[in-house]
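S1.2 Input.
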Amino acid sequence: MALIDQVRKWFTREKPVPTTSDEMRRPSPPTFAASFGSDQERRATVQTCRKMYKSDPRAKGVINTVARDVAKGGLRVRVPENPQAEEIANDLLKRIKLSTKLDDWTRLTLRDGDSYLEIGVDARQEIALVTRKPTLQVRRNSNDNDGFEDPQRAYWLAPEDWVMDYPPGDATWFADWQVVHVRWDHDEGSRYGTPLFASATSAYKRMTEGELDIAVRRKTRAGMKFLHVLDGASAQEIEAYKADNADALDNPFAAVADFFSNRPGSISAIQGDANLSQIEDVMHQIRTWWTASPVPMSLMGYGQDINRDILEEQAKQYRENLEQIKAWAEDEIVVPLLERQWLLAGILPEGLDYEIVWQAKETLSATDLVQVVDAAMRMRILGVRDDLVAQVLARFLPVDVDTDDLFAGYGEADNPERLAAAMDALRGGL
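S1.3 Output.
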């Protein structure tokens, strides 16, 4: 039996019995016009967001910041009641180098709205490779309810220049288990996700047009001009005057300019445009565009007239957004890969009670480390289980936490004097 046939057997599941009216009703296929129009609209949106990411440092900065903060520190899996499953999971994370690839997968999914991750299985029934396929060349072969009528033909890959919504004759087909479809801002029932800045494309167009207008206006209307008046001079005399003073007229860097004339006249200075600082209309478009970003403006260098309290509140808001994005990365990327590997190892994911622990994003200072360990000691004295204390510590420490080593010498039987001192410190801090 071929390897792919063996793997297919692991992922063959019986279909559940329909229990709702939507599942009982077989959806009618969409018309070609509607399907083609929807696909072209999605393609145009993705291309616009890609252009935005490529040409605008603000869009690129936002997406890169979010992806970096999600992946920084890495993660690990805990399965307290099944050490074998825990070892299999963490070996997978190391084998596919998830700590380095998660940044790219998150970044490109936020940019395009979708990522298609193909898994490669070796002869040992292990996921040995995960590669990302081109977003606009892969299509999801699902029905109106976003379900696969044929799980063995769930996705197809078309040539780069193929724009139709039906597969060509030379399309490459993938089974459901072969591809992890990562979707950002996905509506239930729809096939695809939405790019992070999809809702801000109109504001982006007006914003860039306004900034271009300002740049052109500054170049053409900002400089000071001079009016030379020669009373009664003919056209030839004016040209002769310009020729005599060509050095002063043509040198824009002259600090002092002397002009000479043998007839009555004057030179008047005309100030440049005094309204160039009025850019509130463009700032409105920038703020409107930025509402699609999970990173506040002030954290990306656009903070103006903001005090420390507001800045801290916005930083807190970003941390909360980051926690939600991490939860999304778990559900869309990490969990599907883990469950596929467990199935390949003959372990049913439904029977596992596991947890994904994210490492600390930043290395703690010595003072912070003392406070974290002190808090852990207080929790343990109050009777909190060691595994729960370890979970709390894992949120702050960029290393694995071994509670046996960490709390060695603090047990009641081992060192009662040290325990008493810790209890006194606890009472003093409560």
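S1.4 Remarks. Residues 308-344 form the longest helix (37 residues).
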